[in-house]
Amino acid sequence: MSDVTLRKLVKRYGEVEVIHGVDLDIADGEFVVFVGPSGCGKSTLLRMIAGLEETSSGEIRIGESDVTRADPADRGVAMVFQTYALYPHMSVEENMGFGLKMTGHAKAEVKEKVREASRILKLDDYLKRKPKALSGGQRQRVAIGRAIVRGPEVFLFDEPLSNLDAELRVDMRVEIARLHKEIGATMIYVTHDQVEAMTLADKIVVLRAGHIEQVGAPMDLYRDPDNRFVAGFIGSPAMNFVGGSAAQDGVLAPGLGAQTLQVAAAVPGVGTEVIVGIRPQHLALAPGESHLVDLVERLGGVSYAYLVAATGDRLVVELREDDPAPRPNDRVGLRVDASRVMLFDASTERRLR
Ligand SMILES: Nc1ncnc2c1ncn2[C@@H]1O[C@H](COP(=O)(O)OP(=O)(O)OP(=O)(O)O)[C@@H](O)[C@H]1O
Ligand SMILES: [Mg+2]
Questions:
Q1: In angstroms, rounded to a whole number, what is the distance separating the alpha carbons of residues 92 and 305?
Q2: Of the residues 13, 159, 188, 208, which should be mutated to test ligand 1's pocket, given the most ligand atoms within 8 Å of the CB?
Q3: Partner residues linked to 66 by β-bridges
Q4: Is the CB of 205 under 6 A from ligand 1?
Q5: What CATH architecture is 4-233?
Q6: 267: which residues sit within 8 A by CB, 6+ positions away?
Q7: What ligand is nearest to the CA atom of residue 210?
Q8: What residue stretches are annotated with the ABC transporter domain (predicted)?
Q9: How far is 44 from 166, CA to CA, in rounded Å?
Q10: 203-212 pLDDT tens trace
């Protein structure tokens, strides 16, 4: 079994604490993605699991073993980094087999494992090439191959695709999903790209400033975020947020127009200030003058209209292919699908359900 358990994990650099007591259960074979803004502690947490960073306090278990103080080589993990760091003078084959060779594995065994990895990664035709004769995507596949040949129980990826161009990222994302399906190992994957998180993860862990904000399946986080941070982080373009207040029969949010919104969420006492959240696809343009069009982005199937309200609030509205697109400086009205509005406490930013 290669489930991974983190208990009260803390990381301090001198006086500064950067991971503040993280508890997490990762099941055997699960694909877990750590996501969050720059500096939130994703890499630190991953490197603690790998054994590349010392744990200040708390416990890390992999399967039955407490590996908190174990040597990286004894944890049954293999890590793939953003920079592939291949040996330039070695062929693809030699790069993939090097680690095994160094740890004294027999030549035939190394060859067999490299062959298996290159089959999985479709690198068969490139085995004799040097890294400089490979594309970025191929190089990253070699780096992943280096991890596969070690037969780890847990794969750790730290932003492995961020050096690739947009198109290649999509291809490699699909390949990593396929790889997980084929070898079924536990995988922990760090990214700040919420699209990668949504598409790859069985389970997403949203981190912020060294804390876990929420853990859940991608669509659960999307549909049912616990707080404003998660609501704003998951989903692209991000959810719109405006200030509002509870009224007798719903919620008033001047940034969305003058109408009272009959929301599905629990509305606090009349007059209570709230944060009102609504996703771009739950807004539509309507006849009216309440909002000024700042910019329209046409992506083909969908377009995004960027609006400014009289309150100064900025909003993104998703338009479908056949919707008439407004022009910059047009004045428009807004239709709000009030049943999709989410409310958040104005001070704690917790979701009001
Ligand atoms: N050696 C160090 N000494 C002191 N602080 C550090 C050290 N390494 C990292 N930190 C701090 O720990 C915090 C978490 O860093 P970490 O690299 O884990 O962030 P991250 O979520 O991976 O960010 P990014 O998306 O930019 O890679 C940051 O505030 C960083 O400044
Ligand atoms: Mg990082």
A1: 47
A2: 13
A3: 61
A4: no
A5: 3-Layer(aba) Sandwich (3.40)
A6: 246, 247, 250, 251, 274, 343, 352
A7: 1
A8: 4-234
A9: 26
A10: 999 999 999 9
Give CA–CA dist 169/82, Å, rounded: 12
What is the structure's pLDDT at 322?
Answer: 87
CATH superfamily of the 240-352 domain: Nucleic acid-binding proteins (2.40.50.140)
- Nearest Cα to Cα of residue 40 among 228, 232, 208, 234: 208
What does the DSSP assignment read for 22-67? EEEEE-TT-EEEEE-STTSSHHHHHHHHHTSS--SEEEEEETTEE-
- CA-to-CA dists, residue 166 to 135, 137, 174, 191, 335, angstroms: 14, 11, 13, 14, 34
- Summarize the chain as % helix, strand, coil (round to 5): 30, 35, 35
Structural domain spans, the chain: 4-233, 240-352
* 220: helix, strand or coil: helix
**Type of residue found at 90:** M
What is d(CA 222, CA 232) in angstroms, rounded to the nearest whole number? 9
